[in-house]
Amino acid sequence: MNSNDLVKNILKHDIDEQDRILKSTEVIKPCPVDIDLGNLLVWDSNIIDQQAYKANRDEYIKNTMRDNMQLFVNALWQVPIERHDNAIVAKLPESKTIVPREKPVPKPKPLTKWQKFAQSKGIVKQKKSKFVWDETKKEWGRRFGYKKANDDSKPWLIEVPTNADPNEDQFAKRLSAKKERVAKNEFQRLKNIAHANKVNVRNDGALINKKSSANDMKKALATAKYSDASMGQFSERATVDEERQTRGFSKRRKYESNLGSLKNEKNKQLKIFDQMNSSTTK
After folding, report:
1. % of the chain surpassing 70 pLDDT
2. 146-196 pLDDT, tens per residue?
3. What mean pLDDT value characterizes the chain?
4. What pTM value is reported for the model?
5. What's the domain count of the chain?
6. 200 belongs to a structural domain
7. pLDDT the model gives residue 120
8. What is the mean pLDDT of residues 63-73?
9. Does the pLDDT value for residue 207 go beyond 70?
10. For every residue of the chain, which 3-state class applies, written as one string?
11. Final residue belonging to a domain, choices 36, 61, 90
12. 48 is in which domain, residue-wise?
């Protein structure tokens, strides 16, 4: 073999290697695949070549996935393309495949007490502007939140009322009053949520359980007898069962003596044996 033949063989080998690595973008299949660009989905309905699959399963799956991905990319470059902020964006069409939901459709939120009242009175909420005019700063500012306009919550000077203690800190008093208002609003919000979810709540926020059993009532009564200042010393004496329920114990279990009758023990064991051998089991 001369040098020219050697060079031709090397070049041919390189071309074959490139063809093997860099495959063509044109993929031909017996049945065309179904491509849903809206869901980025490719459905291949071609029959699997069982002989090639059994010979080399990984290679067969890899080639099939490569061909389907190539068909998907070819279809993707045929849709309208736009450029936004130096990025190429493809405008996908509407999806064709109906995909089931992972979770059920969320239920509508129950109306609050104010929303029910507004519906009954025909009150329509009007959307206010986020910005208002600040007369002090002579500029537009936010209506609520950080650096809001006409904010008098943090004044640098507070006039002491006539009937107030001159040594009282008016700044701390105003801050305490604000915290109380915030806590009251939060408490009212939680009550509205409980009312919307049909949870019985007392005025102090305690839950009202209408399904309490007689046992729960006895336990609550026994606890209440020991909840006064004298720890129940001057209250009506609780029974033994009530005391045990208060301490978290149930009724005392009775155990039989270890030195019992041999005849009774034999009868019990025979009875258990008969039950195990009987055709009708409980």
Report:
1. 71
2. 888 887 767 778 888 888 888 888 888 888 888 999 899 888 888 888 877
3. 78
4. 0.34
5. 2
6. no
7. 92
8. 90
9. no
10. CCHHHHHHHHHHHHHHHHHHHCCCCCCCCCCCCEEECCCCEEECCCCCCHHHHHHCHHHHHHHHHHHHHHHHHHHHCCCCEEEECCEEEECCCCCCCCCCCCCCCCCCCCCCHHHHHHHHHCCCCCCCCCEEEECCCCEEEECCCCCECCCCCCCCCCCCCCCCCCCCCHHHHHHHHHHHHHHHHHHHHHHHHHHHCCCCECCCCCECCCCCCHHHHHHHHHHHHCCCCCCCCCCCCCCHHHHHHHHCCCCCCCCCCCCCCHHHHHHHHHHHHHHHHCCCCC
11. 90
12. 3-90
CB within 8 Å of 164: residues ≥ 6 apart? 170
Task: Identify the residue whose tokens are 């009868």.
Answer: 267
Residue in 49, 77, 75, 76 with CA at minimum distance from that of residue 63: 49
Overall residue count recorded for the chain in this entry: 282
